[in-house]
Amino acid sequence: MPGKLFLVATPIGNLADISFRAIETLKAVDLIACEDTRHSLKLLNHYGISKKLISYHEHNERERAAELVERLERGESVALVSDAGTPAINDPGYFLVQRAIEADLQVVSIPGPVAFVNAVVVSGLSTDSIFFGGFLPSKKGDRRRRLDEVKNVPGTLVFYESPHRIGRSLVDCYEILGDRSAAIVRELTKLHEEVRRGGLKDLAECFSDAIAKGEFVLVIDRAGENAVAAKIDSLAGRVRELEGSGLDHKAALKAAAKELGISRSEAYRRLQGSDK
Ligand code: SAM
Q1: One domain, residues 96 and 197
Q2: Residue 105 banded pLDDT, cuts 50, 70, 90
Q3: Does residue 41 have its Cβ closer than 6 Å to ligand 1?
Q4: Cβ–ligand 1 contact at 159 (below 6 Å)
């Protein structure tokens, strides 16, 4: 029988943040694949787990994935861990999961810490719809383009950011997204855990690149009601244009909503409201 691939979430700072099931799984598997074997050894030693380790990182993902799939097919069970948090979330893992699925192997997630989810819940910003954008591009032009692409996403925006760029990124966020409410969530679960809440303008002024230290998640409010209202105004006009070009009302509404990045139900509800 083929073995299973377990994606095991590990702490993002506080070694106590690991589930019983994660520990049981790490003890039970034949092999643990980890991003950095020395880093994972600290966690494994802390929990008295002695297991065969193999490195699996961004530079050897392809060869290692093939090797791990072979082992799984031979019946070995494998746990994948990253340096922190959930594997495959801005960490190696996606490629192996793909190969395992192609080989018809079972992939099991052992849930646990993930920085962006915990950052959103402490930010105080809305949790009903969340857009996680991973790391913002490191080059200014690319970063500003990316922010422009997501500025109308109807949900709370979340990004990972490095301490070297947090100041510059905040300036770009303010200039592209406006002075939205935001939170900088720093060093979650660690000694210097901190949540700084405020407008993007003030946060950009507070966080200069020179003084920023630690690990950061940037949480930003969705476009304000004014931006939504502006979109709804464009929506009505665009629907009329598309109807003028021959589409029936339903098709015009669907196409216009898609163009403006609004859900069809929201567009329908808002247009009805604006007709009254
Ligand atoms: N796999 C991880 C997860 O599940 O969240 C993410 C790994 S990614 C390479 C590392 C980034 O995650 C950091 O640069 C930071 O933005 C964020 N991060 C990780 N641990 C964090 C922590 N304790 N506090 C704040 N942000 C953290």
Answers
A1: no
A2: very high
A3: no
A4: no
